[in-house]
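Tutorial handout. Part one gives the primary structure; part two gives the three-dimensional structure as tokens.
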Amino acid sequence: MKKTLLAAFALGIILPAAAQDTYESARLLGSDLNGTARYVGMGGAMEALGADISTMGTNPAGIGLFRHSTASLGVGLVSQADAKEFDGLGKTNMSFDQIGFVYSARISSHSIVNVGFNYHKSKNFDQILSAANALRGCSQNGLTFQKGLKADEAHGGYDLRYNEQNYIMGYDGRNNYRSFCYSEVDHMNANSLMLTEILDNKGTLLDWSIDYMDANAYSFDRAHRGWIADYDFNISGNYNDRFYWGLTVGIKDVQYKGYSEYGESLVLHQGGGEVSGGSVAIGDDRRIKGTGVNIKFGAIVRPMEESPFRIGAYIHTPTWYELTSSNSSLLVNNAYDGETPIGAYDDMSSQQSYDFAYHTPWKFGLSLGTTIGRELALGAGYEFTDYSASQNRIIDGYDYYDNAETSKDHAMKQNTERSLKGVSTFKLGVEYKPVPDVALRLGYNYLTSGYKMDGVRDMTVNSPGTMYASTTDYVNWDDTQCLTCGVGFKVGKMNIDLAYQLSKTDGEFHPFQQYATGMDTGVTKVTNKRSQGLLTIGYTF
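Part two.
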């Protein structure tokens, strides 16, 4: 008869060094099209036009085009199409998106220097993701079993045996320490579903065995919540209305929470066919918190004095993050053979928390902008950043000033280069004023995929990022297209702007990696369709 265990997972071996895996860290890459309603309404194509607070976080020189002090505040609604409420998260949620100001000071007849601050939500994590499909010749616990056959982490696996706390542990067969390839989800599978203990009539452990079960179907639901908030501090200037420069120091605050439920219908192979073997399910709560810092440089030039045509360029350094990730997970084992329960435990839990560092890649941008009379403004932009250049880093310790000393996670870096790629963003925007106090706007924003379609969340990578993983699923997201529109009204010194954005991203959901030939892991098409409404109120003084 199976035992019941509802206790925190004791590692038995404490490792201070930790890092995150490629796909978990990739949540922090890139940014949403968000900011003021004017900026969003023009598809974000304002890096050369400037004079909008949102350009503080893209091309800092855009703030140099302000000639008067200004302040603005923006709120919005974000709604996900074709989504059903899960874990209390509905498909429509309010969002506080932006608040900022610019103080403008003329220091000579030819020069203006501006200083400003802006908060904006660069990433809104709110999303419900669901997938379900058939499986053939595989299961999540089958992956755990196959890794155990490899015996040591040099080959992507481990040697399963009891530790001092009487838990099954995956050890490196060569060095006799916990293998970095032995994940939290491996631990839950191995100790509950896959473990059979042989006891005498007094309950004394005589022997044990490990085996796996195939599954013929899975279901998955996850509710993502949270944000990345950007706090930007800017200094910028204007020389003779021909050259504009800017510098922004950005601080990022990460608050991510994801709760998922993954279940499999298990099968037994009997008489050349399959019969039901019950089910197994894992509920996983993952949180990521921390801060990062980056620096942005930008310039805008107006090459011809008689023309309003402008060219913009900007560079963003990597964001240097220091983060804490934690999980609280529970596996529920309802496997059986007829009326006989399978496995040693009905439940197995995992609770871990660790610190790690993450460096995003550099970003480069070019932009064009011009005005025609007082009625028409046109903008275009291009950005490039290489997701494969991002780095998961291991915290080796702290210096005298309590600053983290880190080193590159080389094994996970190889998986990042295998799975991620360079990303291009194209922006187009137009603003037309039929009358001086009313503006109509249209925009288009196209973001190429940062994921290779054959990319893998590889659970055999010899890395602390694998060891602390409590899930195995991943999505290779495709390109993102955004269509935007907006309208603005000027009432005295006040601006009231409205914008609407419709975006769509398709992807391929994988419950776990393919670990043997001839299997069908139930890869499923998923779509994230999102609409956003924005209201921004600004005041010039």
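Part three, for discussion. The CA atoms of residues 76 and 98 lie 9 Å apart. The first strand starts at residue 70 and ends at 80.
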